[in-house]
Amino acid sequence: MLRSLAAVIVAVIAGLTAAKMVEGGVAGLLGASPGAAPYGVSLLAGWFAGALVAGVLALVIGKRWAPLGMLGAAAIFLAAIITLASYPLPWLLWPGAVAATGLGGYAAIRATGARKEYPAITRKSGLFDE
To answer: Cα–Cα 20 to 30 A to 8, which of 1, 56, 76, 92?
Structure first.
């Protein structure tokens, strides 16, 4: 469990960093200022990239256990909700945040081949197995 906790903490920090870097990069390429429509595109791209990075990193560190990838993407979604609640942004970004972070987390799980069963659990097959 300590490994899973460390995996999520490291993944969320890296995911938030990636989200901010992609957001700034796309906004710079589009020449968007905060509040403009192209800035919303940069936010969605950043949230997708952040969820993808957080999900993949959590899954790689945490032995490819799918709930860790979902938790990493959910943390990026929480950051997106905080951003949307803090600034006057278009309402279309709310469902866009759900879609972008959901797709990022799903892509991370599919790319790493994660499973929903915890990988450290061993099945006992005999009467005297320890």
So the answer is: 92
| Residue 125: other Cβ atoms inside 10 A | 6
Q: What is the pLDDT of residues 66-92, one digit of tens each?
A: 999 999 999 999 999 999 999 988 899
Q: Which residues pair with 65 in a beta bridge?
A: 115
- Residue 125 DSSP class: -
Q: Alpha helices of 31-127 — where are they, by DSSP H?
A: 37-61, 66-86, 93-112
Span between the terminal Cα atoms of the chain, in Å:
20
**Collapsing DSSP states into helix, strand and coil, what is residue 121?**
coil
Predicted TM-score of the model (pTM): 0.88
Which H helix or E strand runs over 4?
helix 2-30
